[in-house]
């Protein structure tokens, strides 16, 4: 089974109530070849919500307790991101997911790049909290930029 970030499947679950539809991924969901999942909603967030970014590193640093996830207003929401990551991991293991397509730049789902914590749209190399936890457990992470590879079986 393939899991896909819900926003990439066209569900309006992003912090601002929007989506990032990738038609090919939505079609996989429609064809019952993939399931949408949103770590942030699993963690207890609602839509819309304040934007959040990782401060002091990336998702791997959050797992180690060396960085935090903070909303633009300054509220620390690290625990909700960790909860969402754990529940996503459990669902991936339960479904024996072969890989997960995640939305880059997200503090949860970023698979290769995230925002740097300045809330100024500056991007850095790094992974989100959920991506870090999934990778730690050997689950293959793919960004939406590599959808062609996924669809071609790479």
Quick rundown:
By secondary structure, the chain is α/β, with parallel strands linked by helices. About 30% of the residues lie in helices and about 20% in strands.
Structural notes for this entry:
This protein has six helices and eight strands; from the N terminus they run βαβαβαβαβββαβα. The protein has 154 residues and is of the alpha/beta class. The chain has one domain.
Write the layout of secondary structure elements.
Elements: E1 2-5, H1 23-30, E2 34-37, H2 39-43, E3 52-55, H3 59-63, E4 68-71, H4 78-94, E5 99-102, E6 113-115, E7 123-125, H5 129-136, E8 140-143, H6 147-151
Parallel strand pairs: 1-2, 1-5, 5-8
Antiparallel strand pairs: 3-4, 6-7
What's the total number of strands? 8
Low-pLDDT stretches: none
Terminal CA distance reads 15 Å
Helix content: 25-40%
Shape: globular
Question: Which class do the helix and strand fractions yield?
Answer: alpha/beta
Query: Could you state the order of secondary-structure elements as H and E?
Result: EHEHEHEHEEEHEH
Major sheet: order of its strands? Answer: 2-1-5-8
Number of helices: 6
Alpha carbon gyration radius: 14 Å
Largest sheet: 4 strands, parallel
List keywords for this structure.
about 150 residues, alpha/beta, two-stranded antiparallel sheet, about 30% helix
């Amino acid at each position: 089974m393939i899991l896909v970030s819900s926003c990439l499947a066209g569900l309006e679950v992003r912090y601002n109530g929007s989506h990032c539809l990738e038609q090919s991924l939505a079609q996989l969901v429609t064809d019952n070849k993939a399931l949408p999942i949103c770590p942030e909603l699993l963690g207890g967030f609602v839509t819309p919500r304040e934007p959040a970014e990782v401060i002091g590193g990336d998702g791997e640093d959050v797992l180690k307790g060396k960085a935090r996830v903070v909303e633009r207003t300054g509220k620390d929401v690290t625990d909700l991101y960790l909860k969402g990551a754990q529940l996503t991991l459990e669902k991936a293991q339960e479904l024996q997911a072969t890989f997960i397509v995640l939305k880059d730049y997200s503090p949860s789902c970023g698979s290769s790049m995230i925002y740097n914590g300045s809330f100024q749209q500056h991007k850095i190399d790094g992974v989100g909290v959920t991506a870090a936890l999934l990778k730690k457990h050997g689950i293959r992470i793919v960004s939406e930029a590599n959808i062609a590879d996924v669809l071609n079986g790479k």
